[in-house]
Amino acid sequence: MQIKRTSEIELLNERFRNNPVVAILGPRQCGKTTLARQFSDQWPKDVTFFDLENPRDLRRLEEPLLALENLEGLIVLDEIQRAADLFPVLRVLADRPNKKAKFLILGSASRDLIRQSSESLAGRISYLEIGGFTLDLVGAVKCEKLWIRGAFPRSFLASNEAASYQWRQDFIATFLERDIPQLGFNIPAKSLGRFWQMLAHYHGQIFNASEIGKSLAVSDHTAQRYLDLLSGTFMVRQLRPWNYNTKKRIIKRPKIYFRDTGIMHALLDLPAKRDVLSHPKLGASWEGFALEETIKAIRLKENEIFFWGVHASAEIDLVFQKNGRLYGVEVKYEQAPEFTSSMRMASEELALKHLWVIYPGSDAYALNKNATVMPLTKLDKIKF
């Protein structure tokens, strides 16, 4: 079974109108290659695929300029992080006056980890970050399944819960034992695995490098390096605090969220829905899932999202700007959220244009003129 990612295909067409190179970035197995093939099916000219994990294709690119300079149409380079030396060649080809080719590159690491792309292709490349499936793709009736199994296509589409859980366990092992070394990081798989597993217990909380480092008998610096690596490979999101002029003692460390709740459930040893629903991290799990869906639905970029918090006082889960105004999102795993003192403090302190309270119910309703309770399954109703 394959789900067509129509909105991403439209975005790719839009990006190629103004850029000779477009990059699709996202975690391994999230559907980048499938999206590239769906996109290439509607491409009007020739399409050439190179899979940089295929030894034959790597040999074809041993002399990259000779291999690529005479090709026309769309050229797709999958798993680009395996051949970072291609970026300077792409710059040369993108700058040719007679541009007969466009380049679609796929990568399983962020721009921070693929530094050469930013340096070599500045002004020539547009980035599109994707994850796995989203609510708008799978439909509201499968919301709970998406939360429990996660968004990776093979996990979500597995024939049963046991098969989905096994796929996620295999993904975690492969990520630690193969993917991380292939990115050039010499980190013992057991050490990073222990850190990743412990991080699952910090999901939705402020990251404390000293505390987690002490638990694992590693330095603060090492704990932060491990976190940055998991962030750079799209496993974890570091939500930074919103800083502004105030006399209040605001929180200055990031909050940690797993981008995929299915992976978090596997690391917490929660193989089935009933295990998730009875676990102490139930509320935090749903909060992270709802936040990730909201970020995707509103199409917010990594550098546009924050949380707000005051020590021993109030917090708002998500803060972002649109059209010069500040907005907020609070997530509540409740059936009938109310306007809390924390929401009131945030609305007044930050002068929020509007606050949305996302919850698992089915009805939207106003809390006041500047605050609305919104079902997770109706994120498309959020307007600015």
Question: Strand-residue fraction?
Answer: 15-25%
Mean pLDDT: 92
Radius of gyration of CA atoms, rounded to a whole number: 22 Å
Distance between the termini: 36 Å
Oligomeric state of the chains in view? single chain
- Count of alpha/pi helices: 17
Strand order of the largest sheet: 6-8-7-9-10-11-12-14-13
Short description:
The chain is an alpha/beta fold.
Layout of strands and helices, then pairs:
Blueprint: H1 6-16, E1 21-25, H2 32-41, E2 47-51, H3 55-60, H4 64-68, E3 73-78, H5 86-94, E4 101-107, H6 115-120, E5 125-129, H7 135-138, H8 143-149, H9 153-156, H10 161-182, H11 189-200, E6 205-206, H12 209-216, H13 220-232, E7 236-241, E8 255-258, H14 261-267, H15 273-277, H16 282-298, E9 306-309, E10 315-322, E11 325-331, H17 341-350, E12 354-359, E13 365-368, E14 371-375
Parallel strand pairs: 1-4, 1-5, 2-3, 3-4, 7-9, 11-12, 12-14
Antiparallel strand pairs: 6-8, 7-8, 9-10, 10-11, 13-14
Helix pairs in contact: 8-14, 10-11, 10-14, 12-13
